[in-house]
Amino acid sequence: MDSWDNIRYFIEVARCGSVSAASDKIEVSHSTVLRRIEQLEQGLGVKLFKRLQSGYELTDSGEGLLNRAFAMEAEAMAIERDYLGKDEKLAGTLRVSQPSDDVVDIYPIYAKFIKTYPEIRLEVSPTGLMAKMTQQETDVAIRFTDKPHDLLIGKKIGHLRFRAYAHKKYLQQFKKRPKLGQVDWIIWQGEPLVMQRNIVYNWINEQLEKPRVILQTSSVSGVVSAIRAEIGAGFITDCIAEQYADWVSLPGTEITGAYELWLLTHRDLKHVPRVSCFMRFMEQELRALVKRHN
After folding, report:
1. Residue 56, Cα to own-chain centre: how many angstroms?
2. pLDDT tier at 2 (50, 70, 90 boundaries)?
3. Are strands 49-52 and 92-98 parallel, antiparallel or unpaired?
4. DSSP one-letter string for 110-148
5. Which of 16, 168, 209, 220 has its C-alpha lying 20 to 30 A from 23's C-alpha?
6. Phi/psi at 160 (5° precision)
7. Domain 90-294 adopts which CATH fold?
8. Topology, domain 4-85
């Protein structure tokens, strides 16, 4: 029979209903998922899915396998949790997941942690997929969310404040401080699972009758680059904007309380020493960071 990895791919395709959605969730290529499913079907000698135009639908054989696969998944996760829980050393690898968008610069805090606990090796993955936490593929997550998954526990750190910034050289084209309706806007469409909703886009459309959106990007880092290139004005957190002395904030553009910053881990990992140590350290540092910019 094929490896457990192939079963994992099968579970995700069954959950998502398509190879494309499963590949996005697992963060591998479309062809990899297809190959894994084909290997599993060949090894078992049955067809597990009906390939329909609307997506992948389980066959009777697939339905039968799925229930057993869920049991295998639960047992594999339980084994991993049990053995991780026996680790009592402040050493080893700690997998950390953070938002893919550069809303807040966490790396200076990581630097302080590494200096304090040099035997703990951090593996930082910029992803917003909550599945990485619930499936035990990461140990700690820093998330922007309104409602964490039921399997996760942690601390709500606070809210971040956004406001519009523009480069001084961009603003020189105006004889005096421009009205918001005169500004060329840069907007970002945040990853849905990270940001939940696009409050920047909503704010601009609510406040301005005919906003001139000159550029749209898929990440906050894209907004930063566009502001630096003097393209227009965009929304950034104060803690990122303070790194650029030649940026100017636009009055009346503050958006406060939009995103809740959470520090999360799986319920079964909370007593692992390196996890609890990291959680305590990060909570203190992140709270201080948020407080300085509110």
Report:
1. 27
2. very low
3. unpaired
4. HHHHHHH-TTEEEEEEE---THHHHTTS-SEEEEE-SS-
5. 220
6. -105, 145
7. D-Maltodextrin-Binding Protein; domain 2 (3.40.190)
8. Arc Repressor Mutant, subunit A (1.10.10)
- Calculate what percentage of the chain has a pLDDT beyond 70: 86
Strand 247-249 and strand 120-126: pairing? unpaired
Provide the whole-model pTM: 0.63
Question: Which residues are within 8 A (CB) of 83 and not within 5 positions of it... i.e. 6 or more apart?
Answer: none
**Helix 30-44 × helix 4-16 angle, to 10°:** 110
Report the alpha-carbon distance of residue 95 to residue 121 in Å, rounded: 9
pLDDT digits (tens, 9 = 90+) for 20-35: 888 877 767 788 889 8
What are the extents of the domains in the chain? 4-85, 90-294
Report how far residue 40's alpha carbon sits from residue 196's, in angstroms, rounded to the nearest whole number: 35
| 187 to 116, 158, 214: CA distances (angstroms) | 38, 24, 8
Cα-based distances in Å from 225 to 215, 234, 243 = 11, 10, 13
Look up tokens 């090894």; give the residue.
43
DSSP H or E run through 59: none
pLDDT tens digits for range 89-114: 788 999 998 876 567 889 999 999 99
Residue 228, Cβ neighbours under 10 Å: how many? 13
